Amino acid sequence: MTYAGDLTPHQAYELVASRPDVLLVDVRTRGEWQQIGVPDGADAAGDVAFVEWNTATGPNDRFLDDLAAAGATPERTLVFLCRSGVRSIGAAEAATAAGLGPAYNVLEGFEGEQDRFGMRTVNGWRNAGLPTSGPT
């Protein structure tokens, strides 16, 4: 079963900000949240949840349980975000297969693509100037 589709960071933010039933799910690792920062939902009507797709030791075997505990339901729109927009595809597919959502992926992720120097300055949620909070 295919997830509902891809959104740019601005489209994702607009969706989260305009609909309180939307859950933005950051599926990066706890270390990424702590060291890099997180999307900030304070300016948006929707919620932000933090559910690891992979943990420091490997795949999160409790992903769907953790997602449900964060407020995901079959009726609630889910928007998945990771570092660059790759892990979040897997998360959106898993949620869709489990009957949750509709589930969307955020293209470019939180940090975006690497520039010619290997730094993540090209695109993504943070580089688009969307609300963020410092490391948690």
UniProtKB/TrEMBL annotation:
A Pfam family matched in the record: Rhodanese
Coiled-coil annotated spans: none
InterPro entries from the UniProt entry: Rhodanese-like_dom, Rhodanese-like_dom_sf
This protein's UniProt keywords: Transferase
Entry's transmembrane regions: none
GO molecular function, one term: transferase activity
Domain Rhodanese: 18-134
Protein name per the record: Rhodanese-related sulfurtransferase
Taxonomic classification: Bacteria, Bacillati, Actinomycetota, Actinomycetes, Micrococcales
